[in-house]
Specification:
By secondary structure, the protein is mostly helical. The chain has helices at 2-34, 44-65, 68-80, 83-102, 112-171, 180-184, 191-208.
Length: 209
Amino acid sequence: MGPDKKDTAGKAGNGNGGNHGNGGNHGDRGGKARHPTRRRHPSLQALTHQNIESILQLEDENLRAKPPLYRLVSRVAGFCGTVAFLWWNLAFFAVWIALNELVWRIDPYPFTFLLFLVSIEAIVLAILILISQNMSAEASERRHHLDLQVDLLNEREMTALLRLVTRMAEKMELPPETHGEVKALTERTDPSKVLHQIVEAEATHRERG
């Protein structure tokens, strides 16, 4: 009888210990469930950097899509608008004048051939600048169109939010004077009508002036 009781007690102890151990596991699982991992949202600086990178990548893709001659013109025009190009021109003119006055005298004063080279350079630079300005105007027009589309999307989002706020105010039975202006702004804006109003206002201002 003694050994049987001891065996029974040992089995009971093992069972209780196992139950306590399982309870501890359940506690660990419960603890893990109570403390879920928090998702870190990107900062404003990271979002701004991502947007800038996206715009720059689009501009680079548009530039690479152009013919090689246009890409060459863009690089040359960019270099011609630097101080380094100015110093290169001044150094070339000074060396040319010094050599023709002191050594060669191939193009003596008034340096007719040098004036000819300067005229050709001016014509080429003017054409390069015009082409570069056209490319810049095209890129600027694309940016303005992007700004317009984003503004229109923002206007539609704000209109939807204002309609939702107006309905909430009506459900809460708030006085009409508290949300009367908001209700007036819930109408969707027509860009063509706004542009027509701008044209009319400018014409009226010119007539008054």
